[in-house]
Specification:
Strand order of the largest sheet: 5-8-7-6-4-9
Low-confidence stretches: 398-407
Shape: globular
Mean pLDDT: 89
Distance between the termini: 36 Å
Number of strands: 24
Helix content: 40-55%
Number of helices: 28
Number of domains: 4
Length: 757
Amino acid sequence: MNFQDKIFETYQKMLGENRFLQEDELNESYALFKSNFGPEKLMSLDGELLLETMFNHGNRGSLVYWLEFKNDDEFRTGRFGGIGGGSALKFGIYKRKEDGKWITGRSAKDMRQIELPEAISIAREKRALLVRGAEIIAAIDDYNNDTYLKLQDDIDRELDYFGNLGWVHKYYHMLYPEKIDDYHSIDWQVFYLIKMQEKPIKSDGRYVLDGQYMRAAKKVNMIINHFTAALAQCYGLPHNYWRVGTTTTDGKHSYWPEMYQNGYVSVGWPDLGDLSQMDGLSHLEAKEQIKRLLAEKYPNTPQSIGRQANQVIMFYKRIKPNDVVVAAEGRQVLGIGRVAGGYEHKDGLPFPHCLSVQWTDCKGKLPNPNEGLMTTVNQYKDIDNLIAIEKMLSSPDSDLPDDSQRQLKSLTGVMGKIEGILNRKKQVILYGPPGTGKTYWAEKACLELASRKAFKKAFADTNESEKSYLLGDGKAKGLARFCCFHPSYGYEDFVEGIKPSVINGQAVFSLKDGIFKELCDDAKQNPGQNYYLIIDEINRGDISRVLGELITLIEKERRGMEMILPLSGELFSIPENVYLVGTMNTADRSIALLDVALRRRFGFIELMPDYSLLSSITVENLPLGLWLSELNKRIVEHVGRDARNLQIGHSLFMEKGAPIKNFDKLCKVIEEDIIPLIEEYCYGDYITISKIIGSSFVDTAKQEINHELFETGNKPDLISALLEPKPEIATSSSVNPDDNEEEQELENEEANGEQQV
């Protein structure tokens, strides 16, 4: 099927599913935008009113808010292309959330605070540029290639870098949708032209590319808004193209047959071990760790190690599902495939770092076969090569054209509080909303306290045999043990009970000790050590029934006091060296509902969302701590009674004790953990859900979540959707605009990396 037939078929399907705004609805939105922010309107404003109307994110009637965030019945900005991502500096000026001061700059390196008169002057300058660009675009009257080449030259000359900003391009699309397309990222413009197998006339000129899109839309008789939406539906969201070498450094052995047969692509450096252990690290942190490992396992010059680290980090971090991979041996293409899964380490393979791939069998050479020749992993950039790869994918049957000594410090924070209550009362319950780290802190504290008692060292400093002693090894039970209460959990599970078993084919009922009685017996036999029982979800069981007469014995003052157990008739006591640590999710049951006798015998520590753990974390210019704080404020506002106990905890954004810094992982947490939780809180009230998580995530008419936002490559729109309920947080001083710049510099550096063939 040729391109025109394919795009028209997609368009007809989307039309039948009512996926488009009709042309008259689009025109109404364009007219509304122009009446609010067109050149005539902007020229009628001046002073502080002009500044606030153009650049105050907190003003929901401002230009920047409408361009990036406004998504309601009046105006749905997402229908006209996204400009999400990047910090508020992309507008050149913004009003800081904390103190209302104006900040200007083009990057983190030159950002500075300015006074109101200078801010007004900057707003006037940018207005003048916007108006001048609008005049230039208004003058063009055909779709010829030369017309758009001249348009690009005029914009570059008159507006300089300003004219090529994404938000400026969107502004001009809103004024002139019949002349300017609604892909506001050059990368997106180039990507879909490659999918159309049409070479971009000027890959760094967004207005020249506008002309190509307008001509292509005209050929299939579609308005540009429908055409670009059909393109995205037809070909998916933008992805990257990669070359991966398949031979050893000396070229004597190729692993391509194994890769093709088993459906994966892989690279060497086996001594680096499983790279997924670095999942909790940022891109830059993982690269530094890989450099250290390479220097240790594969000694070489710093330059060579740096190039190798670039290759490894590209394979492990940057190649994503749906990316296209070209398996190469020198200048020869062996196969092309699509990445189908994430990174996996396969022990025993000489090339153990793997990605699942759906291969297409082909052989040949790309038009420019030297691109990435001296690398193991390289991102293709050459346009002719990219178009050739797309041709191959669309025609798969044809070939391409030719410390143990450390002094122990006193425990502080949550662990210090747990230690203090255990010393005072012998048992503690950690309670709070879901995801506030209750189980994490219970386990961490028990292992740390047990380790300090047993080995006079921190748990982190223990060796494997010591850890086995603390945790148990399958043969012997450890000092720290774990159980979880649930509605059917009873006295017979916890203390003792009559349980059935089969002996010589006969059912036999015998008395069995429960987990707590076993722990107490072990503690009596080993009085020099402390024993800890973690009871997760303690409030989900019938605590009075589970504990029985032990409700008296667990008291610190009654430790060692004997009592006759009703089933076995044995004398039983709880020794001094036994400690109980429970966790309780207040979203399930309020602490106020617990048995008064139980409350008196336990100490309690409330764990609420700790935004300080996320305060320094910015993921793709999304300030994680601020975003979570604002989300919880909306939960408290809209959910109603007990909403304080239903807030989202910080631990959902933690992994192995460290904040998530990877955007893809953050997306999964939001889609798979947070949104379902909010749906449950709201009992299917999608209007309320929309108010809490943001209108972009909810189709209130269909009563469903918009999961398309989470598709790979849809990063800008997803970021805009996350910021939409409170866009001012994007202007917070906690946002580090430098993060994206460092990542971009790293990508540029990696693109020039060098490694094995």
